[in-house]
């Protein structure tokens, strides 16, 4: 137990430092396109720091507590990049490929590595199934809403499906449910009509599903 707590504390500190770096890196709004330069400034966004610390610390603690080390390269890429993706999506309603692309590649590579580390393909098959379920569901939503759900959300859903599906396919459905409900509640509270950033809530749903998984 002491080792698990120590790992959690160290990971939380790493997440805090990463969050500080992410917040300062995004402060110059260099991710905005020419068409997005006229948007209002997003503010200081101190939430990036504590969100990063909480996410990295909690996921690392879960990995250590459940002795799920083969899942580390599957769960950590999106955990580490999640706050940056969320901040950009909340600002310009876009999930940049230059962040999401590498995260997807590393996550899928990590999923493939579980075949060697675990000695069987069960985890890899579940992760691939999670990608199909989550990515397919959001692709259908994108068609139904005629682009209201952007293709960036579809790609993020697939990556989230890989991460959560590596644990269990049931967790994928919980991730989509929690993410969707949280997104709808947020939109209601802030009185947001029309398209809204889905990415932060989808990643939150994925994090909750992982932490709630046995």
Could you characterize what this model shows?
The protein has 214 residues and is mainly α. The protein has one domain (2-212). 75% of the residues lie in helices and 0% in strands. It contains 8 helices and no strands. The protein has helices spanning 2-26, 47-65, 72-92, 97-118, 122-144, 151-165, 169-189, 199-212. Helix 1 (2-26) runs antiparallel to helix 2 (47-65), helix 6 packs parallel to helix 8 and helix 7 (169-189) packs across helix 8 (199-212). The protein is globular, with a radius of gyration of 17 Å.
Name some characteristics of this structure:
214 residues, globular, 8 helices, mainly alpha
Secondary structure elements and pairings:
Elements: H1 2-26, H2 47-65, H3 72-92, H4 97-118, H5 122-144, H6 151-165, H7 169-189, H8 199-212
Helix pairs in contact: 1-2, 1-3, 2-3, 3-4, 3-8, 4-5, 4-6, 5-6, 5-7, 6-7, 6-8, 7-8
**Portion of residues within helices:** over 70%
Largest β sheet strand count, sense and barrel closure: none
Give the oligomeric state of the chains in this entry, treating copies of one chain as homo and distinct chains as hetero: single chain
Shape: globular
Report the β-strand fraction as a percent range: under 5%
H/I helix tally: 8
Report the end-to-end length measured between terminal Cα atoms: 17 Å
- What Rg, in angstroms, do the CA atoms define? 17 Å
Mean pLDDT metric: 94
Structural class: mainly alpha
- Tell me the number of structural domains: 1
The residue ranges in which pLDDT falls below 50 over 5 or more consecutive positions are none
H/E element string?
A: HHHHHHHH
* Annotation, overall tally of beta strands: 0
